[in-house]
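Margin note from the TA: students keep mixing up input and output lines. Inputs are the sequences; the output is the structure of the whole complex. Example:
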Amino acid sequence: MEDKLINLKKAFDEDIANSSSRENLESIKIKYLGRKGAVTQVFKELGQVPADKKPVIGQKINQLKGEISQSLEAKEKELENGQISGSTGNFDISLPAITKDVGSPHPLTIVKDEVCSLFVEMGFKIVEGPEIETEHYNFEALNIPLEHPSRESFDTFYIKDKFLLRSHTSPVQIRVMEKEEPPVQIIVPGKVYRPDAVDASHSYMFHQIEGLLVDKGITFAHLKGVLSVFTKKLFGEKTKTRFRPSFFPFTEPSAEVDVSCFICGGTGCSVCGQSGWIEILGAGMVHPKVLKAGEIDSKEYSGFAFGMGVDRIAMLKYGINDIRLFYENDLRFTKQFS
Amino acid sequence: MKATYNWLKDYINIEISVEELVKKITSAGLLVEGIEKHGDDSVFDIEITSNRPDWLSMIGIARELSALTGQDKKPVKIYSPKAKDTEVAEKPSFTIEIEDKEACSRYVGKVIRDVKIAESPDWIKKYLEAVGSRLVNNAADITNFCLFETGQPLHAFDLDKLEGGKLIVRRAKKGEEIVTIDGITRKLDKSILVIADAKKPVAIAGIMGGLGTEVNEKTKNILLESAYFDPVTIRRASRKLGVTTESNYRFERKVDIENVMFSSDRAALLLEELTGGKVQGSTIDVNYTQQETYQIEMNVEFPSKLIGADISKKEIIDILSALDFKVTEDNNSGVLKIEVPGFRSDVRIAEDLVEEIIRIWGYDRIEPAMPAIKAHVEPAQGKLIEYKDKIRQIMLGLGLDEVVTYTLSGKNALIDSKTLPEKPVSIQNPLSSEQEYMKSSLLPAFLKVINNNLNRKIKEIKIFELGKIYEQVKEGFNEREMLGIGVCGTRYANWQDHVKKLEFYDLKGLAEALAARLGIKNLIIKRKSFDFFSLAESVELYINDQLAGCLGKVDKKVLKNFDISEDVFFAQIQIDKLVKAVKTDYRYTALNKYPSAARDIALVVNESVSCAEALDIIKTTAGDLAVNVELFDVYQGDQVPKGSKSLAYSIVYQSPDRTLTDEEVSDLHGKVQETLLTRLKASLR
């Protein structure tokens, strides 16, 4: 009988060591402690044990039962905690995660948001305007008269009558000035259209961001100040900004704004055409005729305006060499920006 | 515009290096886009803005360099009739008439006799080659040389080939033709200005000369033309003919009417020196009235005020004078009177002068400053812009990828996607058939994106766009901001869960999740058929009883038109309707502290019974005490009779103010069960 108890313990120890699930543990429990279990069975056999040995054997059976209960309990706890003490089991941490879908923003929106929020930090208000515009807002009010050579660089899609697809975001300047009293301090993102044949660097639809600040005493120095802060924030603290005289019908004086090449740092590379500079913005002091079109007295107020191409900045910033990628929406492309 | 280092040095004493010169003119607004070596010379490719025709000449750029370096300009030698008194007395042997005086405000002609046509001397050849001008012969090369030198285009006719002893500047007649010097026959009409002799057009004014009257090695006598043509007339003709030359490029940007004679005299001198010819008679000058000088008054403090830098009176006067403006000071009143030279018709107001001053003074010397920023009274953006961004973030959070699609679309794509509206917005001048219409739905563009991605073997496509659709309305056009959602392919592509096709309910779930996140409680769908959706899976979306969009499974035929063989689900929702319904005024209600009891019920109903019908009965029967009802199983198959299905609901009963007894719950649930069975003719499963 004593041997039997020893074997029983051995068998139990083996069973429990091999047990790895709660279900399995439950069946072990039944196997040993159940109504027809092995331990119950030996209790029943106690009657056949000689009377003098009964107390000793009985005590041993009870002790065995206690041990079994204890180790079952311990094992149960271990399984609850999900691990077998002293071992990682065969839990495979390398199986792929049960992924949650993560959507990817479009790179053009990323850049648009980044640019807009930098100007919002500087006190600008985000405004949008219609894409179907009139000749008045797109041209005349911006000092671009018909038959003027400057109108050439604004080739335009026409719809009918005086309606057209805006060729720049500048019409919104006029719309806002007409409605609001200075100070006017706006940043205007949006789609613009020009009938360009589509290739790696041209798209008939692209995105611009326009800025306008009109108030008393606004100077060209302020324009330099605001844009220098902006370019540093967008391209890094070390970025240098260069203002070159240029011509836009709606600003006077006008400037092209270059930043030191953020690829080579200004020493010259293929991105900046070896010049060390990359053209980023057009800017200038708002032309008095434009202020007048916006019903603002140019004797009392002055202002500056600037504009940039979102597609161009995104291409430079992310090293994208084909503008068409933005509009093909190949998800393998988009996913790179999540 | 091309200019060379050596050529520029003919007009100014400069000792600066090529690099320094490039840096200087770039800082003044002449952007050098490239530098090339040409023999011992350096050629600059310079971008010239459309307001500066005066820079389309060596003399013009040299003027700029003089202002920038303080070096003196060298005088340019010209033909001077005074030295040849006897010839001046002689009447010109030729007449010039201008019929269209608006289109030609000045025409200067010189007769040069006894020329010897040969090759040009090396120095002219070198210069012209460096700037990429074709070499012809000494006479023609001189006209080209003067074009680059002075900015005034010239033309030399073979005088003996001009019939009738006269030239007429007139509109071409319908049916007239001319063979130009490039050998091409060009059809003319009355929109095109020509130079004609007594019989025929001999040149297209300001654009190109005719082949028949071209100067060649046999030419003995020349008529030299220098004129001012109206920019608009020349531009229209050049567009119509599809020709762009160095000549019309300059006329279109406006040449200097005073420079017309100077340039003629310059060419005459060179023709006499290099071809051995002699100017005969006096110069013909037709339709010329001297231009009034343009004057601007400017306060000396104005530049400093507009720029935010200290620019002294002396600096202002020095710079403007160097640029050939005449500056006089008005009795120490602080007001300067500035006379604008004729070649600067772009300068008309004080702001223009300020640009001139700071260009030379140095944009880089202006110290950046920050404007005083006023505190906002209004929010930094309108509600629509704010919520567009929120909606975008929600859609990204729901696992959709953002796309940006073209606004214009071909007519076929609209027809193929069955989204061509009655009154589409069409483009008058599309570049291709892909740009005929503005889109009236996001669907066609989405189908293209989905097709592209399926072709690239992408299995799970879930995209969204915040974009506009366009329509014609009574008073013009309407642009509507839309949220488009498109899904196609599989979901749950992982090792644990089964691969499952994306379906109608996925898209419905996305729309509901968006609404929930925006606090919109009242998103309702109603069955409604659309041409582009399948009949069974096609609904309208309502928010607070207002139509806000559509959602459904894209029609098989439409998909076939876009070469898509997978199921596609698409929804389009008006942003303004979403924004209007956004809830921001939340109020707290006390949390229920009484226990709840859950009961399940499984019904067998006719397959035509909708889930919503059963749900509605449960809710109305149990009232507020049914705090949550969830459908947890829908079954159709062997376990239920044919033509029927099983719906299983879990109902949670709870009272806000007391503990419901077991008996109460059983009674209520019994009532719910009873009503369901009778009303739906259902049985328990």
